[in-house]
Write a structure and sequence with these properties.
Blueprint (H helix, E strand, L loop, with lengths): L2 H9 L5 E2 L2 E2 L4 H11 L6 E6 L2 E6 L2 E7 L2 E5 L5 H6 L4 E6 L2 E9 L8 H21 L9
Antiparallel strand pairs: 1-2, 3-4, 4-5, 5-6, 6-8, 7-8
Length: about 140
Amino acid sequence: MPAGSLRALRSGRRLPQTLGVITMTATPDLVKTVLDLLSGIGQLRERKMFGGIYIYCDDLFIATVHGGTLYFKANKNTAQEFIDRGLRPFSYPKQGEIATLQYYQAPAEVFSSGAEMKRWASKALVAARQDASLKKPRKVRAR
C-alpha cells in the first residue's frame, strides 16, 4: 500500500471499501502492510501460490491475499465469529463448481492498528495450530 494510504488508514480517513473490507489492487502492497502490522507475532514468511499470496506464521498457513482481499484461517472453533460479522469465506471456481475454503475475509478494522491485526491473526494461528494437531503425521518413505 502506498505510504499515503497507510497513513490514511492509521489516521482514520476513509478509503474505498467493499462489504466492509478494504480493497486494494496492489496485492504486494497489501501483503507488505499486513506483514508490517503483524510484526512481532511470530516468524512470518510469504509464498506466492495459486494466484495469491499465502502468509505463514511459525510455518503455519494463517492467511491468504487474493484479488486485493485479506482472508484469515478459521476452523469449526473460530469460523462463527467471521460468519456472525457477515465476512465471506474465500471461494474459487473449481471444475465447474465453487470451492469454499476455511479462510474468511478480514474485518476492516485490522488495517487500523497492529493490535487489531494481531488479534485476528492470533485467532487464525490458533485455528491453524488446532488443525495441524489433528493431522496424522506423514510417513517417511524409505529410499
